[in-house]
Amino acid sequence: xxxxxxxxxxxxxxxxxxxxxxxxxxxxxxxxxxxxxxxxxxxxxxxxxxxxxxxxxxxxxxxxxxxxxxxxxx
Length: 74
Description:
Blueprint: E1 4-9, E2 15-19, E3 25-29, H1 32-46, E4 49-53, E5 59-64
């Protein structure tokens, strides 16, 4: 499975970027918009999947920035 970056709510407030939904945050932001913007930059650079979660922890959006098979139509 390719590496994934996740934007998740921090229980103490704000938003975190994590790798593969790990326990340790790689960056913390006060608001979700800034976290998503930075996570998208990282994901594009590293060609990973970006998974954006809501305050409830459920996945709201997923973006692929690499590792797509080239022979898939559509």
